[in-house]
Design a protein that fits this description.
Serine Threonine Protein Phosphatase 5, Tetratricopeptide repeat; elongated; mainly alpha; 157 residues; 7 helices
Length: 157
């Protein structure tokens, strides 16, 4: 009896993996064909049905990248990347999401104080990461804005 339960459990897990992989592949096919709406819809289904899976984290990252690269909706992209930080803070995607949030603030929104804050947070959390030299490079480029930011902050106070 015990062996039958284990076998049934393994079958169920196998079916779930098959379903999630099928959905993942389908979402990516829609993405490749630039059917962004359908792609996002399926990625969101994966997140809802399998919230603790690697596919959910990857799906969330894909959604954020769609808003960043395809839709050019930078504030929404930041929110979508933020969901990874909130729901999966120890994942590898969280590190990449934090970098992307910083990068968007710096290079698309010209929100330099937010960029500096998030880049510094990245260096604090991931000082030895492969992306650390890129973050340091970005921060060096932001030094020219630091005086402007500081003077604006002093004016507001």
């Amino acid at each position: 009896m015990y062996n039958k339960i284990i076998i049934l459990f393994l079958i169920i897990i196998g079916c779930n993996n098959y379903n999630i992989e099928r959905k993942w592949n389908s979402a990516n096919n829609f993405l490749e064909n630039k059917n962004l709406r359908e792609s996002i819809k399926i990625f969101k289904e994966i997140i809802k049905k399998y919230p603790n899976s690697d596919y959910a984290i990857k799906s969330q990252f894909q959604i954020a990248e769609i808003y960043l690269n395809d839709k050019k909706e930078y504030d929404i992209a930041i929110d979508e990347f933020g969901k990874i930080l909130e729901n999966h803070p120890t994942s590898n995607e969280a590190k990449n999401a934090l970098f992307m949030i910083s990068y968007i603030y710096n290079n698309y929104l010209n929100s330099y104080s937010h960029a500096i804050h998030n880049y510094n947070l990245f260096l604090k959390n991931y000082p030895n990461d492969d992306l650390a030299p890129s973050v340091q490079y970005e921060l060096k480029g932001l030094e020219k804005y630091k005086n402007q930011i500081d003077s604006l902050n002093n004016t507001i106070k």
